[in-house]
Amino acid sequence: MKAILFDLDETILNRDASLLAFLDDQYERFHSVWGHIEKGQLIQRIVELDARGYVWKDEVYTRLIEEYKLDTSVKELLNDYTERFRYFVIGFPKYKEVLVELKRQGYLLGMITNGKVGFQRANISGLGIENLFDVIVVSEEVGMKKPDKNIFEYALAKLQMPPNDAVFIGDNPTNDVEAARDVGMIGIWKRDQLIESYKSEHIIDKLEEVFDLLKQLEKN
Question: Is 10 exposed, middle or buried (0-12, 13-18, 19+ CB in 10 A)?
């Protein structure tokens, strides 16, 4: 293996924890808007509407304003989210150490993430890892998104790397693991504890487990 490519959300970025940290802060800053609603109740509802990031926040905040008849605008809440979320990003344990060590060992590093380009790149910057990657591909930026095989082929072309020399690590069985395999890469599932039924040939629970797995792959 010569190249290691990663997903971002729930693979390197602990998005669930980051969102809770952001919402806790946003609740206090917009207390005049929704202070009459118990904090835990409001945050739980936003998390439900967010659907782990698969519903963009304009729709989330629209629903929230309608349900609770809030005296604010979608634009105000959305701008706050897009501008301030980056300050609350939380990476999974040892995320930076793992990336630094992979670079030290000579691997090329790539990232493919679905999402809004400005928002995702701000989050990557917030984690302090943008300079560790040889290529970062954000779906909005290139007009295609996972699981479309073209976005994987695009990233590989940027790295000048054939798929059989690359692995992709992600938490989503369809968008990450299976999609990577479909283009000839090795797909590694970073296990999502909320997904019980999926089985994968290559699994890690923690990012640092990638080193032992790479050694096994090299032997094979």
Answer: buried
- The domains of the chain are located at 3-14+91-219, 15-88
- In 3D space, the residue among 126, 117, 95 whose CA is nearest the CA of residue 18 turns out to be 126
Where does the pLDDT of residue 7 fall: very low under 50, low under 70, confident under 90, or very high at 90 and above? very high
Total-model pTM:
0.94
Instruction: Find tokens 């959305």 and name the residue.
Output: 78
Which of 209, 191, 170, 172 is closest to 7 using CA atoms? Answer: 170
Distance CA(79)–CA(85), nearest Å, equals 10
Name the residue among 4, 16, 7 with its Cα closest to residue 145: 7
Assigned CATH for 3-14+91-219: 3.40.50.1000
Q: pLDDT per residue over 153-170, tens digit each?
A: 999 999 999 999 999 999
Neighbour tally for 143: CB within 10 Å: 10
